[in-house]
Design a protein that fits this description.
It contains 17 helices and twelve strands. By secondary structure, it is of the alpha/beta class. It has four domains: 96 residues, no CATH class; 47 residues; 117 residues, Nucleotidyltransferase, domain 5 (2-Layer Sandwich), CATH 3.30.420; 127 residues, no CATH class. The radius of gyration is 30 Å and the shape is elongated.
Length: 414
């Protein structure tokens, strides 16, 4: 293969090809040496040195394929004695990753591929093992994170939610820019001090500019937001309220199912078994004729589930009101009815709603939702399943930014 055509394809500045060491159908080994006029940039102090040459050494780095062959560069590096710290330093090369066996452009391509597929698949494509892909990808993401996400980006409208990254209640707190629809910050845990770190990171002035924060009702998130985002409207969003209502209905179903099995009530067991539970969680307006008939029969033979369904459907009417005052008046009446009902699960959430009444009513003032956070959480869970879990939680945090945040190469340039 002609040396000129290889040099043209490599396009590496300030270095010349001195030898083609070997070439097969699958790879090619190329020796590179710096031009004599190339300045020596010290890897220690970053300055240019003209005196103090101490010798040379050779290292091997993989570059992007050319002519469908894997390329290995045997690079001659000069060593100088640094006058700043009196240590012998090797020269810094702009296109080569420091302390790495790959070029920068090769690492960038690995990083781009891991943004759309798994590390295992990316490794198969480049002929690398999983550990090598992990090290390259993590280093690239750390560089991008430091350049773009430190200090943390500020936003006007936020959504805060947690997602599980490990069994036994191990959580990450994610802060989402609702307008950008992207994760802008995350950290381990879901306590008050975790979210505090985000607010402290963006500074007091940016905290004052926050207009709204959608939450799942967690006291830890509310406490932190009240303390720092002093001008923000805190919204206990509709999405999580629906989750609470569905939880109350489903818990009632489970209790009645246990009772029905003890009493050998076959008809009731058939109506409220796990296969039928989704019918109880649907809105009445979305039920088919068959499902409506099923629900009517269930309500006829089981009073607790009938009352639970009534409480759920009656709560949803609060969102038909147009003004916060009308909604608050209706909601206060619903809370009284739920507290006086015989359905234990609804008494529990009624007490919770009473404590967070103002945050529920805030939805009528600022109709922001953390549903975007739940959508992102689904992407994160999919990401975790694809990788069969992550042992390195710091790497997992970076992958979230790569797939769901501001480090996504398909949406944002670096």
């Amino acid at each position: 293969m002609q040396r000129y055509s290889i040099r043209k394809r490599l396009n590496i500045p300030e270095y010349k090809i001195t030898d083609i060491l070997s070439e097969t159908d699958k790879n090619i080994h190329i020796k590179l040496e710096p031009y004599k006029k190339k300045k020596f940039v010290c890897s220690g102090c970053g300055q240019v040195h003209k005196i103090g040459e101490h010798g040379i050494e050779e290292s091997i780095a993989e570059d992007l394929p050319i002519f469908e062959k894997r390329v290995y560069l045997h690079i001659v590096k000069r060593r100088y004695k640094c006058p700043v710290d009196k240590s012998t330093r090797i020269e810094e090369i702009s296109w080569l990753k420091k302390w790495s066996r790959v070029t920068k452009r090769f690492a960038e391509q690995v990083n781009r591929l891991t943004a759309i597929t798994t590390n295992q698949e990316a490794g198969w494509f480049f002929g690398l093992d999983d550990e090598t892909v992990y090290r390259i990808d993590k280093e690239m993401l750390e560089e991008q994170y430091n350049a773009k996400l430190i200090p943390p980006p500020a936003a006007v409208n936020l959504s805060v939610d947690e997602v599980s990254y490990k069994k036994y209640h191990r959580y990450l707190t994610n802060v989402v820019d609702v307008d950008e629809k992207a994760v802008i910050w995350n950290d381990k845990g879901r306590k008050t001090e975790v979210l505090d770190r985000y607010y402290v990171g963006i500074g007091e002035d940016n905290c004052k500019r926050i207009e709204s924060v959608a939450l799942d009702g967690a006291r830890t998130f509310i406490g932190s937001t009240v303390k720092y985002a002093v001008n923000a409207t805190i919204v206990y969003d509709k999405f999580h309220i629906m989750q609470k209502l569905n939880w109350a209905v489903d818990m009632t179903r489970k209790q009645e199912l246990r009772t029905a099995r003890k009493e050998n009530n076959g008809e009731l067991v058939d109506l409220i078994n796990c296969k039928q539970r989704f019918i109880l969680l649907k809105k009445k307006s979305n039920l088919t004729d068959t499902q409506t008939h099923y629900l009517q029969r269930l309500c006829q033979i089981n009073e607790p589930i009938y009352k639970a369904m009534l409480l759920k459907e009656s709560f949803l009417k609060v969102y038909d009101y147009q003004t916060p005052e009308e909604a608050q008046s209706y909601l206060e009446g619903w809370i009284k009815d739920a507290l006086s009902s015989a359905v234990e699960t609804f008494r529990i959430i009624a007490e919770s709603f009473r404590d967070k009444l103002q945050y529920i009513i805030n939805w009528f003032k600022k109709k922001i939702s953390s549903a975007i956070s739940e959508g992102i959480n689904n992407k994160i869970k999919r990401l975790k399943r694809m990788a069969y879990g992550y042992r390195d939680v710091e790497y997992f945090k970076l992958k979230i930014h790569q797939h769901c945040g501001l480090l996504n190469p398909r949406k944002y340039s670096h």
